[in-house]
Amino acid sequence: MKKALILIDYINEICHKDGAFGNYPMLAANDAFNKLNKLLEHARKSDWLVVWIIVGFSKNYLEANAKSPIFSKAVEYKKLQLGTWGTEIIADLNYDLAEPIICKNVVNPFYGTNLDHVLRINSVEEIYLTGVSTEVAIQSATRDAHDRGYVVNVIGDCCASSHPHRHEASLEMLTYMANVIDSESVIKNG
């Protein structure tokens, strides 16, 4: 069964210590960047498809939903603008230029993007999700991937939130639709 590692929103504005969204403390406390780089090495050696997802908007923010509590703040504070430091993949991660980056304008990485197309033309049946925030993007991606028929695994120790209690509650809820595992078990058994 072909597998894919999908990394969601590991961008500066969301994951850097100087970013606006506050996920860095949990990522740092869990040594997530080191774990993610080991996962990337494993995925590449195992011939998995590696897909990066970023959230971002053009300079005029025409793609941003002004009614969204999340994205209206991005517009107000001029955050998550494509082509800026804020939407670059965080330098702590070993991104490979050969790997696709899919840009989303919403929470769900499947909605309005070609993610499903990329997975299906590469015969992917099983996905490993990791990213931020657990209670927003990871929950949304897991639910959608589940309903599309993928075998879904969430790598919990590499996901993060600015609210640790929401992270834990989300992982517990996601066990209904996914295998919630840790990075070490992926490398050992994946």
Automatic annotation (TrEMBL):
Pfam families attached to this UniProt entry: Isochorismatase
Gene3D superfamilies for the chain: Isochorismatase-like
SUPFAM superfamilies, sorted: Isochorismatase-like hydrolases
Leader peptide range in chain numbering: none
Keyword tags: Hydrolase
One GO MF term attached to the UniProt entry: hydrolase activity
Domain of life: Bacteria
CDD domains (UniProt xref): cysteine_hydrolases
UniProt keyword Hydrolase present: yes
UniProt keyword Transferase, yes or no: no
InterPro entries according to UniProt: Isochorismatase-like_dom, Isochorismatase-like_hydrls, Isochorismatase-like_sf
Domain Isochorismatase-like: 4-184
Protein name according to UniProt: Cysteine hydrolase
